[in-house]
Sequence to fold (444 residues):
Amino acid sequence: MALHRGLQKKGFKLPTCEKHFHDYDETWLILEGKGTAYWITPVGEREEFELQAGDVWMIPAGYEHGTDGFPGTGANTDDFTISVFTGTLPAGSHEPGHYYVEKEGYILSLELRKTPTQRYASATPSTIQAFVFPEKGRMEIQELPFPECEPGMILCKSTYSGLTNGTERNALVGGNYGRSWPSRPGYQNVGTVISTGDGVKDFKVGDTVFSGHHRKHSDYFTTPALADDLVVRLPDSVDPTHAALFGVASVAMHDVRRADTRLGENVLVVGAGPVGQFTAQAARLSGAIVTICDLNESRLSIAAELGAHRTVPVTNEDASWDAITEAGPFDVVFEDSGADVFGHIIGQDWQQGVILTNSRVVVIAGRERVDYSFNAGQSHELSIVQASHFDRDDLEQVCRLTAEGQLRVGPIIQDIVKASQADTIYARLRDDPASLFGTVFNWS
Fold:
């Protein structure tokens, strides 16, 4: 209700007033004299009021009202002086004035709406909800202390985070990436910036960002956010659920660049999981001719949809690699499966395998050790390439190519799961990893 200044210092005489209604509350201040008035409720009940100086009469929106004068006179006293002010006009109201039910054809009713608010709640909670591996083979959600937004960092409220299938299973079951528990998994975080630390210039509150640092799965996270850090602001054209897999996409981008993949080279990707799918796309975007193989033919169908030139179903049996041999020989092979396939790729002896002389074999999937025939490798003058995480430019290129529609994420996402139900995903990751593909956790 607006401020009505000076209403009690002036007014107007009201001998009579015809029956009418408004779409808003109306209040009468009785300044002088006395008189009578009435209202009729929306259900047709009439109530009369005797008003005198000093009274305040509030008529609810939609109530018909007027003055009939004192009984037997037909008029109020000559000194019946009032001042009137209106309440809030709801959307769609008439302009202030007299309106008549008989003419307008409706009786107004108002509805009370209660909208939940966090206005007076603490700006941030005192703890976070985080995924933890408390012991080998088990995941649970725990409450942990709320992180501090230190200089050079940003604090974000999570919207999505992405599962890193191979890395997280490796840590869950005690592979080469870790055999100590408790531990926390995750390096693919999407969130909204809610605070910035001293020295941060490239991000502001309200930005939607992806962080590829190892900030773990949680409902709030902090992340380094200076010039070379693994954080990008997401353009409006990038779906934030897709951005939840930018970590594995950037790993693939880094691998392809680390291998110096070139225009026209013949490339083999072994394993059509999420990293393999992004490796195949990045290699194709570099101008290579891409063959991808896997045990799972449905994943190969997705790889074909995403632009792989050839897809080959394969097992670890020698005969099944004949089709790979026919598609080769290869300049570059990316081993993204974790399977024991180096004998097939490099060969068991001199000038065997599916690779060319001076070829590169890029070892990505985690494992305890890599064994291969020295003679076979020497005959090819083989380069064994290993890569680790990714850098800021890898991430920026993934973001750019996704925004342009050249790198596609959507077909790789199989499950979007509420973070509160993540235990079902980790049980599958432990017991049936092949049932998972691209998985995104929803924190909203």
Summary: The CA atoms of residues 355 and 412 lie 28 Å apart. The longest strand covers residues 153-162. The chain has a mean pLDDT of 92.
